[in-house]
Amino acid sequence: ILSDETVTVAVGDNDQVSVVTLESDGSTGTTESGGTDSFTVTLNIQPTAGDVIVAVSSSDTGEVAVAPATLTFNSGNWNTGLTVTVTGVADTTVDGTQNATIALSVVGGSSDTDVAVSVTNDDNDSSTVTTTTTPTTTEPPVVLEPEVLLSAFAVEDDGFVTWVPSRTDGLQSYVLAWSRPSEGWTTHDSYQGSDSLKDTLVGLADGDHSFQVFATYTDGAYAESNIASITVPTPPPGPTVNPEPIDVDPFDCAAFPSLIQVMGTPGVGHSVKQLDVTSGQYSEIFSISANRSPPYT
User: Fold this and answer.
1) Residue 220: CB atoms within 10 Å
2) In angstroms, what CA-CA distances link 213 with 67, 148, 165?
3) Is there a cis peptide before residue 146, judged by omega within 30 degrees of 0?
4) Do domains 5-122 and 148-232 have the same CATH topology?
5) What is the pLDDT of residues 72-95, one digit of tens each?
6) Which residues make Cβ contacts (< 8 Å) with residue 138, sequence separation at least 6?
7) Do residues 246 and 259 make contact, with C-beta atoms less than 8 angstroms apart?
8) What pTM was computed for the model?
9) 43 in Cβ contact with 17 (< 8 Å)
10) CATH for 5-122?
11) Model confidence pLDDT, tens digit, residues 166-215
12) What are phi and psi for residue 218, nearest 5 degrees?
């Protein structure tokens, strides 16, 4: 703890009134939290020409406030001392310790008699880093619904059905549905896993047959294929079993001495020839080539 110290600023002759300050611990300091300090002010000589008014002001009222604003001295209190209270002013700026000056001026006196008291105002604000956390939204991966492409074709009365899934991962089973001619849909067969991707149906009835595949997955996914159709044609009728005999009258060569015949040779064409039944000789009337353009039917 420092001993009391008197700071006096007096310029001029001995008859000039000047201000004397006394800081209790040799310095004056405040804090932004409202801390106060004070010092004592006296005159160097007794006033003889009436009261002496000393104005008190702060160089930075945003940091330090003073009270009172004026001190009045007379012949009764000039050397007993009047107190000036200094109060720290709070702000929200992190500015560290700030310095201010308290000016004491004799009103109407020479500026040479002014006294300045230095004051420190300790900052009570701390640097706070505000962290704003922006939530990160992770979009779930896009999972495409599986698809199944089905195709079918017929060879005579056999049907061949194949299907291709867009995703085999997690494939559990297939079901092949079949719609027969003039009938509704029924389940033809079921298959496990992704190894069975085809089926063959033999001896199909004539008409239109439609197929569709349904796939299920271990993760609950489900897929329906397109509908594929085939047509099994109706074959032409075969030869008549035990046909009814037809009576043909005998040919009278005497009445018809010649016979017209159409004769065909594979890869060559057809010829229209006349047979002389008496001589047994053929004579060509005209022929049609197999390579003619346009082709004949």
Assistant:
1) 8
2) 96, 8, 10
3) no
4) yes
5) 999 888 888 899 999 988 877 777
6) none
7) no
8) 0.37
9) yes
10) 2.60.40.10
11) 888 888 888 889 999 888 898 888 887 766 788 888 989 888 999 998 88
12) -65, -25
- Residue 86 structure tokens: 């200094």
Sorted by where each begins, the domain ranges of the chain are 5-122, 148-232, 258-289
SS3 readout for the chain: CCCCEEEECCCCCCCCCCEEEEECCCCEEEECCCCEEEEEEEECCCCCCCCEEEEEEECCCCCEEEECCEEEECCCCCCCCEEEEEEECCCCCCCCCEEEEEEEEECCCCHHHCEEEEEEEECCCCCCCCCCCCCCCCCCCCCCCCCEEEEEEEECCEEEEEEEECCCCCEEEEEEEEECCCCCEEEEEEEECCCCCEEEECCCCCEEEEEEEEEEECCCCEEECCCEEEEECCCCCCCCCCCCCCCCCCCCCCCCCEEEEEEEECCCEEEEEEEECCCCCEEEEEEEECCCCCCCC
Read off the tokens for 174: 């297939």
Architecture label for domain 148-232:
Sandwich (2.60)
